[in-house]
């Protein structure tokens, strides 16, 4: 991954692919779509939100591998 490479949020990838944000997160957590997980924020919330970024090349590779 190039340090100057475009990084997409889950919401941006969702808009590009037309899939839901939940589907994108599921693919990331299963390891099917490579992504960088940013450190967790320690807040008072019970729910822990993880910030996920997907590299442009990782998205292109995933889409090419999974073409119908």
Describe the structure.
This protein has about 70 residues and is of the alpha+beta class. It has one domain (about 5-65). Helix content is about 40%, strand content about 15%. It has three helices and three strands. The protein has helices spanning about 10-15, 20-30, 55-65, and strands spanning about 5-10, 35, 50-55. A three-stranded antiparallel β-sheet has the order 1-3-2. Helix 1 crosses helix 2 (about 20-30). The chain is globular. It starts with 6 loop residues before the first strand and ends with a helix. The model has no long low-confidence stretch (mean pLDDT about 85).
What is the number of domains?
1
* Shape label: globular
Widest sheet, order of strands: 1-3-2
Identify low-pLDDT runs: none
Count the DSSP helices.
3
How many E strands? 3
SSE arrangement, N to C: EHHEEH
Q: How is the main sheet built?
A: 3 strands, antiparallel
Name the helicity range: 40-55%
Cα-to-Cα separation, first versus last residue: 26 Å
Strand content: 5-15%
Kindly name the structural category: alpha+beta
What does the radius of gyration come to?
Answer: 13 Å
Mean pLDDT: 87
Question: Which properties best describe this structure?
Answer:
68 residues; globular; alpha+beta
List the helices and strands and how they pair.
Blueprint lengths: L6 E3 H8 L3 H10 L5 E2 L14 E4 H10 L3
Antiparallel strand pairs: 1-3, 2-3
Helix pairs in contact: 1-2
Give a short synopsis of this structure.
The protein has one domain (7-65).
């Amino acid at each position: 991954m190039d340090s100057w490479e475009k990084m997409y949020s889950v919401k941006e990838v969702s808009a590009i692919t037309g899939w839901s944000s939940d589907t994108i997160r599921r693919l990331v957590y299963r390891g099917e779509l490579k992504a960088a997980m940013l450190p967790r924020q320690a807040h008072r919330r019970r729910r822990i939100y993880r910030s996920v970024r997907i590299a442009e090349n990782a998205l292109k590779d995933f889409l090419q591998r999974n073409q119908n």
